Amino acid sequence: MDFLKLIADRVVLFDGAMGSMLFASGLQGGDCPEEWNITHPETITHIHDSYYKAGSDVVETNSFGGSSLKLASYGFADKAVELNEKAAQLAKKVAPPNSFVAGSVGPCGQFIKPLGDLDEETLYESFKEQICALVNGGADIICIETMMDITEATIAVRAAKENTTAPVIATMTFSATPRGYFTMMGVDPNTAAQKLVKGGADVVGANCGNGPHEMVELIPAFAAAVDAPLLFQSNAGLPKLVDGNTVYDMGPQEYAAFIPDFLKAGAGLIGGCCGTTPEHMSQIKKLLQELRR
After folding, report:
1. Average pLDDT value for residue range 183-200
2. pLDDT score recorded for residue 202
3. Is 223 strand, coil or helix?
4. What value does the CA radius of gyration of the chain take, rounded to a whole number of Å?
5. How many CB atoms lie within 10 A of CB 175?
6. Cβ distance 35 to 63 under 8 Å?
7. Which residues are annotated binding-site positions?
8. Domain chopping of the chain, boundaries
9. pLDDT at position 98
10. Domain 3-292: what homologous superfamily?
């Protein structure tokens, strides 16, 4: 099945959170999530399998922080290829027919010159290494996500486009301000959408940072800026601190109730981010099936 043809034909359902699922499974603060691809493979495959069984067409690999630059903070920079290949292999292992594995690529965690010390060529090479390892491991799609810096995001898109034939998704994270929605680095949705598409992204959108109330407000800006498929994955509401723990308390049915608004606003690919679970995706799948009748 061709992913780009599929998204032209119908709404495509992604998975939900990986990070909060890992913490629920025992990951501790300060642990490297990507190391679990080697040390806890059964846990990772169980999470992927749960999302597929919930009806997700696409699951994202456990590789969000898998660039060598990000892994260096755990002392695992030299394990980038191994951890990313394994991430893709674990998802592919349980992928049903006519489903897809998206290689997750998150921010490197460093500032590019002149704001920081990181040069663009080093960043490009780090993303290239990660993305090629994901594709070699079996990823069908590359999903560059939770980006704040448009330069970093477009470098990641270029690394994917120049070194693989995989479709490329790029999403950024926005926060509400008195002047509208912007990323932490001051990028507005219109600029993000246009630059990402110009850079070669096949699908663009937003993830994380907001609950569905806020995410619905972002979609029209993307829809007006570009003629491209749009992916939006919000958190299960806004985070709350309970007994020192971050909690997202929007349940599956409440979350799924927003999906018709996502679709009316222009989203063609949907899923979830922090706090969402297979149960959230199952509710969305049921709703999508009802809408298709």
Report:
1. 97
2. 98
3. helix
4. 17
5. 12
6. no
7. 208, 273-274
8. 3-292
9. 95
10. Homocysteine-binding-like domain (3.20.20.330)
How far is 260 from 195, CA to CA, in rounded Å? Answer: 28
Q: What's the Cα-to-Cα distance from 25 to each of 28, 93, 102, 120, rounded to whole Å?
A: 9, 20, 22, 36
Span 235-293, pLDDT tens digits: 999 878 787 777 888 999 999 999 999 999 999 999 999 999 999 999 999 999 988 76
Q: Report pTM.
A: 0.96
Mean pLDDT of 75-102: 98
pLDDT digits (tens, 9 = 90+) for 26-50: 999 899 999 999 999 999 999 999 9
- Which amino acid is located at 285 in the chain? K
Mean predicted lDDT score pLDDT of the chain: 96
Which tokens hold the place of 137? 């491991």
Residue 84 host element (H or E)? helix 80-93
Residue type, 77: A
Residue 27's φ and ψ, nearest 5 degrees, are -60, 135
> What does the alpha-carbon distance between residue 196 and residue 218 come to, in Å, rounded to a whole number?
16
Answer for the pair 95, 101: CB distance below 8 angstroms, yes or no. yes
Annotated binding-site ranges for Zn(2+): 208, 273-274
CA distance 81 to 185: 29
Tokens encoding 93: 């292992």
Separation of alpha carbons 163 and 131, rounded Å: 8
